[in-house]
Predict the 3D structure of the following.
Amino acid sequence: ETGVTQSPTHLIKTRGQQVTLRCSSQSGHNTVSWYQQALGQGPQFIFQYYREEENGRGNFPPRFSGLQFPNYSSELNVNALELDDSALYLCASSGQGSDGGSSYTGELFFGEGSRLTVL
Amino acid sequence: DQQVKQNSPSLSVQEGRISILNCDYTNSMFDYFLWYKKYPAEGPTFLISISSIKDKNEDGRFTVFLNKSAKHLSLHIVPSQPGDSAVYFCAASWTGIGNQFYFGTGTSLTVIP
Protein backbone atom coordinates (compact mmCIF):
# COMPACT_ATOMS: atom_id res chain seq x y z
CA GLU A 1 0.00 0.00 0.00
CA THR A 2 1.45 3.35 -1.06
CA GLY A 3 1.27 6.15 1.49
CA VAL A 4 0.66 9.84 0.96
CA THR A 5 3.51 11.50 -0.90
CA GLN A 6 4.14 15.22 -1.30
CA SER A 7 6.46 17.30 -3.44
CA PRO A 8 8.55 19.32 -3.21
CA THR A 9 9.75 18.75 0.35
CA HIS A 10 11.30 22.19 0.67
CA LEU A 11 11.08 25.36 -1.34
CA ILE A 12 11.89 29.03 -1.03
CA LYS A 13 9.88 31.77 -2.71
CA THR A 14 9.78 35.53 -2.54
CA ARG A 15 6.83 37.69 -1.60
CA GLY A 16 4.34 38.09 -4.43
CA GLN A 17 5.29 34.89 -6.22
CA GLN A 18 3.05 31.89 -6.77
CA VAL A 19 3.62 28.30 -5.63
CA THR A 20 2.17 24.89 -6.48
CA LEU A 21 2.43 21.97 -4.10
CA ARG A 22 1.57 18.42 -5.09
CA CYS A 23 0.15 15.43 -3.30
CA SER A 24 -0.54 11.81 -4.18
CA SER A 25 -3.14 10.25 -1.93
CA GLN A 26 -2.83 6.88 -0.27
CA SER A 27 -3.92 3.99 -2.43
CA GLY A 28 -7.70 3.54 -2.26
CA HIS A 29 -8.34 6.98 -0.77
CA ASN A 30 -10.48 9.39 -2.73
CA THR A 31 -10.65 12.37 -0.40
CA VAL A 32 -7.76 14.77 0.00
CA SER A 33 -7.43 17.66 2.40
CA TRP A 34 -4.74 20.27 2.88
CA TYR A 35 -3.53 21.73 6.14
CA GLN A 36 -1.16 24.58 6.98
CA GLN A 37 1.06 24.23 10.03
CA ALA A 38 2.80 27.39 11.11
CA LEU A 39 5.74 27.20 13.47
CA GLY A 40 4.65 26.26 16.99
CA GLN A 41 1.03 25.74 15.95
CA GLY A 42 -1.17 22.80 15.14
CA PRO A 43 -2.26 22.05 11.60
CA GLN A 44 -5.02 24.31 10.32
CA PHE A 45 -7.56 23.09 7.76
CA ILE A 46 -7.36 24.81 4.37
CA PHE A 47 -9.79 22.79 2.23
CA GLN A 48 -10.90 19.33 1.19
CA TYR A 49 -11.37 17.80 -2.25
CA TYR A 50 -13.68 14.95 -3.18
CA ARG A 51 -14.43 13.79 -6.69
CA GLU A 52 -12.43 16.68 -8.11
CA GLU A 53 -14.47 19.34 -6.35
CA GLU A 54 -13.75 21.49 -3.34
CA ASN A 55 -15.92 20.24 -0.53
CA GLY A 56 -15.29 22.18 2.64
CA ARG A 57 -13.01 25.15 3.23
CA GLY A 58 -11.38 26.68 6.26
CA ASN A 59 -10.68 30.32 6.98
CA PHE A 60 -8.24 30.94 4.15
CA PRO A 61 -8.44 33.65 1.44
CA PRO A 62 -9.25 32.85 -2.21
CA ARG A 63 -5.58 33.10 -3.20
CA PHE A 64 -5.36 29.60 -1.73
CA SER A 65 -6.82 27.28 -4.34
CA GLY A 66 -6.58 23.66 -5.30
CA LEU A 67 -7.29 20.91 -7.73
CA GLN A 68 -7.99 17.23 -7.52
CA PHE A 69 -7.37 14.96 -10.49
CA PRO A 70 -9.19 11.79 -11.61
CA ASN A 71 -6.49 9.64 -9.97
CA TYR A 72 -7.26 11.49 -6.66
CA SER A 73 -3.94 13.29 -6.58
CA SER A 74 -4.15 16.96 -5.69
CA GLU A 75 -2.46 20.33 -5.97
CA LEU A 76 -2.45 23.31 -3.67
CA ASN A 77 -1.81 26.67 -5.30
CA VAL A 78 -1.03 29.85 -3.44
CA ASN A 79 -0.92 33.15 -5.30
CA ALA A 80 0.58 36.47 -4.24
CA LEU A 81 2.66 34.88 -1.51
CA GLU A 82 2.97 36.72 1.79
CA LEU A 83 5.58 36.31 4.50
CA ASP A 84 2.97 34.72 6.79
CA ASP A 85 2.46 31.93 4.26
CA SER A 86 5.75 30.46 5.43
CA ALA A 87 4.72 27.14 6.95
CA LEU A 88 4.64 23.40 6.59
CA TYR A 89 1.87 22.38 4.19
CA LEU A 90 0.42 18.97 4.90
CA CYS A 91 -1.68 16.85 2.62
CA ALA A 92 -3.92 14.20 4.13
CA SER A 93 -6.04 11.54 2.54
CA SER A 94 -8.84 9.41 3.85
CA GLY A 95 -11.10 6.68 2.65
CA GLN A 96 -14.79 6.77 2.01
CA GLY A 97 -17.46 5.95 4.51
CA SER A 98 -20.21 3.45 4.05
CA ASP A 99 -22.49 6.19 2.83
CA GLY A 100 -20.09 6.70 -0.06
CA GLY A 101 -20.05 10.42 0.43
CA SER A 102 -17.52 13.13 1.06
CA SER A 103 -18.97 13.78 4.50
CA TYR A 104 -17.24 10.75 5.97
CA THR A 105 -15.18 11.67 9.01
CA GLY A 106 -12.39 9.30 9.85
CA GLU A 107 -8.69 8.89 10.29
CA LEU A 108 -6.47 11.16 8.27
CA PHE A 109 -3.25 9.85 6.78
CA PHE A 110 -0.68 12.59 6.32
CA GLY A 111 2.24 13.02 4.01
CA GLU A 112 5.57 14.36 5.23
CA GLY A 113 4.70 17.88 4.15
CA SER A 114 6.15 20.64 2.00
CA ARG A 115 8.12 23.26 3.88
CA LEU A 116 7.55 26.67 2.25
CA THR A 117 9.68 29.66 3.14
CA VAL A 118 8.63 33.06 1.82
CA LEU A 119 11.32 35.76 1.85
CA ASP B 1 -10.67 31.21 18.19
CA GLN B 2 -8.87 28.08 19.37
CA GLN B 3 -11.55 25.39 19.67
CA VAL B 4 -9.09 22.68 20.68
CA LYS B 5 -6.52 23.48 23.32
CA GLN B 6 -3.49 21.69 24.64
CA ASN B 7 -2.39 23.80 27.55
CA SER B 8 0.85 21.97 28.30
CA PRO B 9 3.47 22.79 25.65
CA SER B 10 5.85 20.18 27.04
CA LEU B 11 6.01 17.16 29.32
CA SER B 12 8.93 15.09 30.61
CA VAL B 13 8.48 11.58 31.94
CA GLN B 14 10.83 8.83 33.08
CA GLU B 15 11.00 5.70 30.96
CA GLY B 16 8.55 3.08 32.19
CA ARG B 17 6.24 5.58 33.87
CA ILE B 18 2.88 6.82 32.65
CA SER B 19 2.59 9.81 30.30
CA ILE B 20 -0.68 11.73 30.42
CA LEU B 21 -1.37 14.28 27.71
CA ASN B 22 -4.42 16.49 28.03
CA CYS B 23 -6.69 18.23 25.57
CA ASP B 24 -9.71 20.50 26.05
CA TYR B 25 -12.29 21.58 23.52
CA THR B 26 -15.00 24.19 23.43
CA ASN B 27 -17.30 23.14 20.57
CA SER B 28 -20.03 20.79 21.81
CA MET B 29 -20.64 19.61 18.24
CA PHE B 30 -17.37 17.69 18.21
CA ASP B 31 -18.08 13.98 18.29
CA TYR B 32 -14.92 12.41 16.91
CA PHE B 33 -11.42 12.84 18.25
CA LEU B 34 -7.99 11.78 17.09
CA TRP B 35 -4.50 11.76 18.55
CA TYR B 36 -1.45 12.15 16.35
CA LYS B 37 2.27 11.83 17.00
CA LYS B 38 4.74 13.91 15.04
CA TYR B 39 8.50 13.53 14.75
CA PRO B 40 10.61 16.38 13.35
CA ALA B 41 10.65 16.52 9.54
CA GLU B 42 7.82 13.99 9.29
CA GLY B 43 4.09 14.28 8.85
CA PRO B 44 1.75 13.49 11.75
CA THR B 45 1.14 9.79 12.34
CA PHE B 46 -2.27 8.60 13.51
CA LEU B 47 -2.24 7.01 16.98
CA ILE B 48 -5.74 6.42 18.26
CA SER B 49 -9.28 7.73 17.90
CA ILE B 50 -12.44 7.90 19.97
CA SER B 51 -16.01 8.78 19.15
CA SER B 52 -18.39 10.46 21.52
CA ILE B 53 -20.41 7.30 22.04
CA LYS B 54 -17.47 5.93 24.05
CA ASP B 55 -15.57 7.24 27.03
CA LYS B 56 -12.49 5.07 26.59
CA ASN B 57 -10.55 3.43 23.80
CA GLU B 58 -7.43 1.31 24.13
CA ASP B 59 -4.78 0.25 21.66
CA GLY B 60 -1.78 -1.44 23.20
CA ARG B 61 0.11 1.03 25.37
CA PHE B 62 -2.17 3.89 24.33
CA THR B 63 -5.51 4.69 25.94
CA VAL B 64 -7.68 7.70 25.23
CA PHE B 65 -10.29 8.88 27.72
CA LEU B 66 -13.14 11.21 26.83
CA ASN B 67 -15.11 13.25 29.36
CA LYS B 68 -17.89 14.87 27.36
CA SER B 69 -19.37 16.84 30.21
CA ALA B 70 -16.00 18.46 30.89
CA LYS B 71 -15.14 18.68 27.18
CA HIS B 72 -11.85 17.05 27.98
CA LEU B 73 -9.86 14.16 26.62
CA SER B 74 -6.58 12.65 27.63
CA LEU B 75 -4.06 10.24 26.16
CA HIS B 76 -2.34 7.82 28.48
CA ILE B 77 0.86 6.05 27.43
CA VAL B 78 1.88 3.15 29.66
CA PRO B 79 4.71 2.30 29.94
CA SER B 80 6.43 5.27 28.31
CA GLN B 81 9.41 4.50 26.09
CA PRO B 82 12.16 6.79 24.73
CA GLY B 83 10.79 6.25 21.21
CA ASP B 84 7.58 7.93 22.34
CA SER B 85 9.42 11.26 22.49
CA ALA B 86 7.61 13.41 19.93
CA VAL B 87 5.01 16.15 19.63
CA TYR B 88 1.46 14.94 20.24
CA PHE B 89 -1.56 16.65 18.73
CA CYS B 90 -5.19 16.11 19.54
CA ALA B 91 -7.74 16.85 16.84
CA ALA B 92 -11.52 17.07 16.83
CA SER B 93 -14.28 17.04 14.27
CA TRP B 94 -17.94 16.20 13.94
CA THR B 95 -19.51 13.53 11.82
CA GLY B 96 -20.50 14.74 8.40
CA ILE B 97 -17.93 17.38 7.62
CA GLY B 98 -15.35 15.06 6.18
CA ASN B 99 -11.71 15.82 6.81
CA GLN B 100 -12.14 19.18 8.52
CA PHE B 101 -10.38 18.62 11.83
CA TYR B 102 -9.49 21.21 14.43
CA PHE B 103 -6.06 20.62 15.94
CA GLY B 104 -4.55 21.68 19.22
CA THR B 105 -1.13 23.32 19.36
CA GLY B 106 0.61 20.15 20.49
CA THR B 107 2.47 18.85 23.53
CA SER B 108 6.12 17.92 23.23
CA LEU B 109 6.74 14.72 25.17
CA THR B 110 10.24 13.76 26.26
CA VAL B 111 10.74 10.31 27.73
CA ILE B 112 13.95 10.19 29.73
CA PRO B 113 15.81 6.86 29.67
